[in-house]
Amino acid sequence: MAEKITSRxxxxxxxxxxxxxxxxxADYSPVKGCMVIRPRGYAIWEKIQAVLDGMFKDTxxxxxxxxxxxxxxFLKKEAEHIEGFSPELAVVTHAGGELLEEPLILRPTSETIxxxxxKRWIQSYRDLxxxxxxxxxVLRWExxxxxxxxTTEFLWQEGHTAHExxxxxxxxxxKMLGVYKQFAEEYMALPVLAGIKSESEKFAGAVDTYAxxxxxxxxxxxxxxxxxxxxxxxxxxxxxxxxxxxxxxxPVWASSWGVSTRLVGALIMAHSDDNGLVLPPxxxxxxxxxxxxxxxxxxxxxxxYAGGIHExxxxxxxxxxxxxxxxxxxxxxxxxxMLGVPVRVEIGPKDMxxxxxxxxxxxxxEKKSVKAEQAEAVIxxxxxxxxxxxxxxxxxxRNDNTSDIASYKDFTDFFEKDSGFAVAxxxxxxxxxxxxxxxxxxxxxxxxxxxxxxxxxxxxxCGSKAQALPVFAKSY
Length: 476
Ligand SMILES: [Zn+2]
Hints:
- The structure is a single chain.
- With 476 residues, the protein is an alpha+beta fold.
- The chain has three domains: 12-271, BirA Bifunctional Protein, domain 2, CATH 3.30.930; 286-397, 3-Layer(aba) Sandwich (Rossmann fold); 402-473, C-terminal domain of ProRS (Translation Initiation Factor IF3), CATH 3.30.110.
- 35% of the residues lie in helices and 25% in strands.
- The protein has 14 helices and 23 strands.
- The model has no long low-confidence stretch (mean pLDDT 96).
- The site of zinc ion has 7 residues, from loops.
């Protein structure tokens, strides 16, 4: 066991970093801002990937791979896209010992290279839709980085779809937002708000950006996934037209959507505690750890008994048997708690004599002795209950820290003191949004769909007629 983890109340940022380093999820790289994902962290990402990949395929998508290097001229074809991304680009100017004729960009996202290919692949409505996803790394030169949440290079998936009509592309955008929401809630045990972004927060090159947003334990928001309705912007930039069913030529409609290794950071921040990582069971690389407790005189008997139970459990759960002689049981308990394994099974001579096992759940640390033959069924229920408990706890926390706010004084006070999610009326102007950001550091996280005629209060900033009731928060 390494040093003690900083408590959340002492220093939330340090607590987060301590967990990542001590649970060996990731490490700092020799290149500033980059991250080494260690096996324990990568195993969580692999679980996330496997589930999402299945969900994408179930909704009709296929995987492909496009190159890392993009000609600089491609990015310049879509004006907003290049404007938004240019401060974050890393550019290859030399290769093979020579100055390149055209600089190459290390992809920050792949719309441009993919649409340059869609131009070759799409001629008629018969070629549509295209529903491609790519698992890849991307690079954005970030000035302020934080392990998993914001790193210069990160792993993600990016879906890029092409459609005949606006309606289809918009339906796809919302379908994938729904997939992300379902994944967050059913696998990450993370309640999320889903909705549209304001103009100033949208993806560079999109017509509209939708996102899922979660509240972390420090009451800040974390954008956990985005889905963009791209309209015909990239089709026009890359001259991708198709022959419609009526014989006319029209630019293709598009969506793109992505989630990244940031989700691993979201998991840690949302559920973990001062004893270490707490993992939602469906994404935990190890669901159950079996720890035999013995002395020299009963070692063989206890190991045989515990080993038999482990054999049964491992047929049903992702299970580890920790019979390492180097460390004491107490040391192991602390260590496995720090690693976030949802259920610990302790088996000592007394348990053996009574035909029992001791089950300890990671989320509440409650202990319960059960008959060995019931262990499988009880563990199954425990895993389900841990998921439910983590979700409900996160939801209660978000609800307890969400306030409806009407006056600007209350609004600024809120972000100076308690903070959290503030629901407040907004006139829709960029000026009011910018003033809020400047004076409170809070931004509009999502704008739920609302009929403006139902809004009774004026804009929280300027008092004029409200157009929407967005959720404001400080964010990662
Ligand atoms: Zn206003």
